[in-house]
Amino acid sequence: MKHERIAKIKMTAAMVIFGTLAPFVRAVGVGSGELALYRAVMATVLVGGFLLVTRQRIPLGGIKKELLLLLLSGAAMGANWILLFEAYKYTTVSVATLSYYFAPVLVMVACPLLFKEKLSGKQILCFVMATAGLVLITGTAGSGSQDLLGIALGLGAALLYATVMLLNKLIKGVEGLHRTLIQFLAATVTLIPYVCLTGGLSLGSLDGIGWGALLCVGILHTGIAYCLYFSALKDLPGQKVALLSYIDPLVAVVVSITWLREETSLPQIVGGLLILGFTLWSELPSRPPKQKENR
Fold this sequence. Notes:
Elements: H1 2-19, H2 21-28, H3 32-53, H4 60-65, H5 67-90, H6 93-100, H7 103-115, H8 121-139, H9 145-170, H10 176-197, H11 208-233, H12 238-245, H13 247-259, H14 266-283
């Protein structure tokens, strides 16, 4: 019980940190691809250092067998960051985040096609209602094209994040932080040529606020948050992980309204509740698992 309580604290802390990402992304003042590259590099160093300090052996055999999937998922992760950071520029953080959290719905729909999993009536209902929530958000996003572009970028990021989740379902021989370390490395390798072709590096233009925000994005919101997340994951049942994961978008919406002073309409709030509520319900078991006796 003590281990689970500590794991809950770690998971909650990770989700709160993830939820406060957007203001720091906006404060850095570099291109989305460049910021994604810095994030990947700093996260690689921090996660690699954490594994080294904690003396966790890297499963080279498993990595070799799963290398292609790890590289593809890492590339998708890097591209996902770029689109999400771009979405923050064109629409409110709450709308971008809620669009991004359509990813689990995409995974739910894709699994029957890719893994021959059967969709239940409950899952079909969840898909329909979450889609209705997305329609509500899209229909009230604003009169200009900027908001719609932001939503499109958020959905693009969701599609790429769903791709990462689906590829991770295929990776069997590498778990937890080891998998994430290789994905960060792959994201770094993928983003280097992209950044070189789209303007190069501009660290020299950063002021003190930009440097502070950049270090927060790389160290706090990526390296530390991922270490907290994966160290908690092994001590928590899947149902509690699903519940705690929704702290992230809820914090992001609160940050959007209270910190960034962005306007959010009632239909957008209702749409967000539909997306988050029905996506969460789809991840929870229909019946509570039976309690084991003589624990």
